[in-house]
From TrEMBL:
InterPro entries: Bact_StressResp_Reg, Globin-like_sf, Globin-sensor_dom, Globin/Proto, Protoglobin_sensor_dom, STAS_dom, STAS_dom_sf. It comes from the Bacteria. It comes from Roseateles saccharophilus (Pseudomonas saccharophila). Keywords: Phosphoprotein. GO terms for molecular function: heme binding; oxygen binding. It holds the Pfam family Protoglobin. CDD domains: globin_sensor, STAS_RsbR_RsbS_like. Residues 169-280 form the STAS domain. This is RsbT co-antagonist protein RsbR. The keyword Phosphoprotein applies.
Length: 288
């Protein structure tokens, strides 16, 4: 989203930015005191100071924060400004900053700025009201950019974790010459079944397997969608000249599939993995 898009979304006009800049002139020389007061408030918050590993880091963060507010009060929202706020979001995400501290801190800083601005503009309270309103609107935009960055990083981490879990939960393994086994565990959805099909067919092509055993004893539940997806996987293996066997069909799953009217066609099914293994060995001309 561009700076202009954000300004429009938060209904911040050029007049609002001019009011922020005007407030910056009035508050020039006051930012250090306001930041100091804010840190006094932060010290009173339980556990807040644990976010800083050392006094040196605290001093560095405080200096950066002071510079941020000087930049903020220039009333200029451009690509550089947004990049700086996104960087702050990245930093907050890296230290896992609690949302309550962040939102409370933003609110407290606005209160301190409002109070100081009204003291300094006691001769023109109408101007002070306009300026604090404009600052409040810009702080909402500022906060949104930071939180949106944190949320994006969190979503990316979840997606990466889900991908890693999916890869670990789809182990297509050769258990005998020309026999592959895929034990499925947990919840099966369309995304996972697509991954299962891709990896199964790839492994069949690599190993030139003749029998593919799909064990579903660890699957939590089976509905029409899941059952049809499993059938599609086994049908696809047959197109590659590999016979499919579905093992681990529990009584509850068998009953569910019958009630749902799911047809397995000519696909072999067994109640246990052992039965499936014995059947697979016979298909390749082996015996235990």
């Amino acid at each position: 989203m561009t700076p202009d898009d954000l300004l429009g979304m938060f209904s911040i006009s050029e007049a609002d930015l001019a009011e922020v800049a005007a407030a910056g002139v009035v508050l020039d020389g006051q930012i250090d005191q306001i930041v100091e007061r804010w840190y006094e408030w932060l010290r009173s918050q339980p556990g807040a100071m644990k976010l800083f590993s050392s006094d040196e880091q605290l001093g560095r963060v405080r200096s950066q924060q002071t510079q941020h507010w000087r930049t903020f009060l220039r009333g200029r929202v451009d690509a550089v400004y947004l990049s700086q706020r996104q960087h702050i979001g990245q930093v907050h995400a890296s230290i896992d900053l609690p949302n309550d501290i962040y939102f409370a801190g933003v609110s407290q800083f606005l209160a301190f700025i409002t109070e100081r601005l009204r003291e300094l503009r006691s001769d023109d309270l109408a101007a002070a009201v306009r300026q604090t309103a404009a600052i409040g609107k810009l702080m909402l935009l500022d906060t949104y950019v930071v939180i949106d960055t944190i949320a994006t990083i969190a979503r990316d981490k979840i997606a990466l974790h889900a991908k890693a879990v999916m890869e670990m939960s789809t182990p297509v393994t050769p258990i005998w010459d020309s026999i592959l086994l895929l034990p499925l565990v947990g919840i099966i959805d369309s995304t996972r079944t697509a991954d299962v099909m891709t990896k199964s067919l790839t492994k069949i092509a690599e190993t030139r397997a003749r029998v593919f055993v799909l064990d579903i004893s660890g699957v939590a539940s089976v509905d029409t969608g899941v059952a049809n997806q499993l059938i599609k996987i086994t049908k696809a293996t047959q197109f590659m000249g590999c016979e499919a066997i579905i093992s681990g069909v529990s009584p509850s799953i068998a009953r569910t599939m019958v009630e749902l009217g799911v047809s397995v066609g000519d696909i072999q099914t067994t109640a246990t993995l052992r039965d499936a293994f014995e059947m697979a060995l016979k298909r390749v001309g082996k015996a235990i």
